[in-house]
Model the fold of this input.
Amino acid sequence: MMATTIHSTKKTLLALSALFASGIAALPAQADQLADIKAAGVVKVATFDANPPFGSVDPQTHKIVGYDVDFAEALAKSLGVKLELVATNPANRIPLLQSGKADLIVADITITPERAQVIDFSVPYFVTGQQFLVPATSPDKLDEFSRARIGAVKGTTGEQALHQRFPQSRVLAYDDIPLALTALRNGNVQAIT
Done:
């Protein structure tokens, strides 16, 4: 069953890659950029290196691996260019794109009106909702966290949602998921999102 699921996921990612690549080519504003990428023979893709299962460093190979990397590899292959991964986190993924240090972001990112004003989005390939990770002994009611210390990753919609939903809580922002998890394990926060 798991092998079938992984195979199905990879097929879906490949199909989405082709769709995404054709979407880039179809947009006049990106036509020059696509030509530049093909001429250079490399596409620079910003992706997470500390956000499994989307992107994390494999301890054996020391390479970034994950769903987003699979997607980026399929995209590069469909364009006929080499892939250069640029490690990023939520707070710096858009600045990397805007500065030209990356050609694309392939790192789970929520589409918001504010972000849509500064970057273009492809067709979504992952959908989720706001979730909390808490110790097993934590309260069951969400409202009991209204004045808690809650960890979030900097620059995410999760961080923004915490400030709106729990204005009395103390939101502690971390650079990545592993740092937030460490804070939760150490008791520095009562929940993370």
About this structure: Residues 1-29 have pLDDT under 50 and may be disordered.
